[in-house]
Sequence to fold (181 residues):
Amino acid sequence: MHLMVDIETMATSDNASIMAIGAAVFDAKTPPERGFYQTISLNDIGNEHREIDPKTVMWWLSQEKEAQNSLIAEETRKKFRETFLMFGEFVEKNLGKDGIWANGVSFDLGILRHAFEQENLPVPWRYNQECCMRTFRLTEKYNIFDAKWKKFKKENSNFHNAVEDEDAQACYVYYIIKEKE
Fold:
């Protein structure tokens, strides 16, 4: 199975404070299924020493209220380490030998890798499993799927919500893989 991952952060560095992780499971025969979503407390010790960039905070303040509210609901946020233990278990259970995808490997997976290492937890994927949706989209740029992606994303996704972004991204990759097989 493949995994599509999306995160929401308070900076763009490898050491960015992480507010949410979303992941979907899919392969060429199975449409994406929402598999993991968790918001993370910014007040927790794991996030305490991670970067919060004022420009990113201002960017978040300019986003739709729905996206902002999904990150600040106190009752759904978990502690940093607890979230990474749960996410690590989810990845180990679902990834297998296929790829772990992100819409920019160096961003999402780089930040997640840094956080696993910070917590002295094993990174639950191998470097050669990392797949970049941006690169995939560029190779398909003149293909009909790019138009379908833009339409699907506009109609079905609350931009900047980790779980909705990864769902839309996973659907894009799934449809291309399915079409190519």
About this structure: The first strand starts at residue 2 and ends at 9.
